RNA sequence: GGUACCAUAGCCAAGUGGUAAGGCAUGGGUCUGCAAAACCCUGAUCCCCAGUUCAAAUCUGGGUGGUACCUCCA
């Protein structure tokens, strides 16, 4: 598989450190609020990457953290008059509601920063022992970026350029040796939660938790590190700096970054206030549509968000669900011929879709093209099911292939649900009315069924009932 | 000021040297009492200019337009 590596800015063949095994980490949410569509994109992207690697036979250890201590957490907790811990507990619970809805698999480990203090302190100690840190009295323990020769290798920023540029930027240089230096440990301020450390009471800096949790759960060198493009600098750059300073070896081989979700061509972000939480969107569009929508574009291309685009995605996804439902209906009702030639055509389509799906996903996780492969199979399945010349076994295999491939992408389909007896009876009455050519009555009953939230549709040999959306 | 990315049909979106996937929408058709679904048909000289090449949406140079990062941000 090829992955675009931010470190080198090339698509590279993915080679894990240990054959057959993948160690990957993705930056998780800061749990002070519901997460929005922009936040959801990396969750879905890296969940899909993990699912795909597993599909290809890798044994994947995947860590995604919860950031449960930082300025935003403290401020929000104060506003609400609760502790930071209570706030975190609440929004971790809420995270799971949306994450489960989006069919994001639970990662192997989901550590919380506040529960990783030993690892954090251990990492700072190691950096200190190696001479990378210094203390600013009354402020915190800082990392000295000038001590690391290759600082900037991820973002490809040069230290002197960082200093020179920025326009509006007002960096606080006070006490720092270099403008790019950053706190790894912040000394306690009044009213803030704190933990004991060799340097005094305080709390971890922003970047240190990821470095520490990675070391604790995955080791000194990992295969893949993921996150949004805005984390390239400074967050991931500083993670590299810290971990390599402490561990003395390469931190991570492949950095993978997703592009943003835009609204009217502008980045969706909390500071611009143009964001939509998943919780809000799901009132109108189901979770599986949201996930499908995210995967409809390549992860390194920006995607635009709008109501119309979600609506189109919903119709589009419905096409796949319809196909599987149709296949199921035909399998349970139809008498399929089992014509060898028809089977061959469908078999070819199954194979082509499967092979092409893998080729596309192997090419830097091109889910957009992979979905196209599913649609191409869908068309053939619809045709085959309609003609009813294929064998039940082949149609079943085709249907299962669709389920398999959508499953790799974590896309859940809307399949049969139990139909209440009352509805079935009404549908039977309508069928009788139709037989008696009393179409007025038939249509009236259909409306009645519609009003109860179901749709009855005539198909060759009878009718079928579906839940209306 | 520095650093990246992007510009493909009405809309969304792949393709990144050999004369343009897929989805949504539109129009026509098949099927149907009607409808739904499905199937078939329908649509792009790939932002502009110049260059390289037998061959460019795809490479190079120059424009124009847009976005992001350099500060909390996925």
How would you explain this protein's 3D organization?
The chain is an alpha/beta fold and 469 residues long. The protein has three domains: 2-258, HUPs (Rossmann fold, 3-Layer(aba) Sandwich); 307-408, Anticodon-binding domain of a subclass of class I aminoacyl-tRNA synthetases (Four Helix Bundle (Hemerythrin (Met), subunit A)), CATH 1.20.120; 421-467. The chain is 47% helix and 15% strand. The chain is built from 15 helices and 15 strands. The chain has helices at residues 37-55, 71-80, 84-101, 117-129, 159-164, 208-217, 232-247, 278-281, 287-295, 307-333, 340-362, 367-387, 392-408, 421-435, 439-451; strands at residues 2-5, 10-13, 21-26, 59-64, 133-136, 140-143, 182-187, 202-204, 222-228, 252-258, 261-263, 266-267, 303-304, 454-459, 462-467. The strands form five sheets. Strands 4-3-9-10 form a four-stranded parallel sheet, covered by helices on one side. A four-stranded antiparallel sheet has the order 5-6-7-8, covered by helices on one side. The chain has a three-stranded mixed sheet with strand order 12-11-13, with helices on one face. A hairpin with a 2-residue loop joins strand 11 and strand 12 (266-267). Helix 6 crosses helix 7 (232-247), helix 9 (287-295) packs across helix 10 and helix 12 (367-387) packs antiparallel against helix 13. It is elongated. Residues 165-170 have low confidence and may be disordered.
Helix content: 40-55%
- Please trace the helix and strand order, writing H or E for each element: EEEHEHHHEEHEEHEHEEEHHEHHHHHHEE
Q: Largest sheet at a glance?
A: 4 strands, parallel
The CATH topology of the largest domain: Rossmann fold
Q: Which of globular, elongated, flat, extended, rod-shaped describes the shape?
A: elongated
| Strand line-up across the major sheet | 4-3-9-10
CATH architecture of the largest domain, by name, is: 3-Layer(aba) Sandwich
Number of extended strands = 15
Please, how many domains? 3
What share of residues are in beta strands? 5-15%
Helix/strand/pairing class, anyone?
A: alpha/beta
Q: What's the quaternary structure here?
A: single chain
The average pLDDT is 92
What is the terminal-to-terminal distance?
38 Å
The CATH homologous superfamily of the largest domain is called: HUPs
Q: Using only CA atoms, what is the Rg?
A: 27 Å
| CATH top level class name of the largest domain | Alpha Beta
Q: Low-confidence stretches at least 5 residues in length (pLDDT < 50)?
A: 165-170
- Continuous helix count: 15
